[in-house]
Amino acid sequence: MKVGSPHSSFLRMSLVVLPFLAVPASCSSLALEEVAPLPASQPAVTAQADAPPPRPTQPDGYPNLNVPVERASPQFEADERRQLVEELTDLREKHATGEDSTRALSEAERLRLLGRSHGERALEGIEAPQ
């Protein structure tokens, strides 16, 4: 008879025991309010207080879609919209002409030159007699 490793026997045992442990927890029907009721000074919160107001419906029970929508936040004013459009148009034109890309390329080249010269200066400082 072959004896399995201790890990495999533990795994088999856990596969047998775990379903039995989960059954009592899933059958519990106690609510938190039944175990620990709210104090008298704190009013109970109902689900209807948090629910959105009922939507108007047609006589046949379908929702009425002809009701004006209530906006969640204020919309852009005309002058704000115009200003944003101008800013975005300017950025688009800059990008199309390549001003930003040439500036970025020149910056990259400057950093490459700095890296080369820094390496040479560092070697000179290390090799210099003191």
UniProtKB/TrEMBL annotation:
Signal peptide range in chain numbering: 1-31
**Region spans: Disordered:** 39-80
Keywords carried by this UniProt record: Signal
Q: What is this protein called?
A: Uncharacterized protein
Q: Which organism is it from?
A: Chelativorans salis
Which taxonomic lineage is given here? Answer: Bacteria, Pseudomonadati, Pseudomonadota, Alphaproteobacteria, Hyphomicrobiales
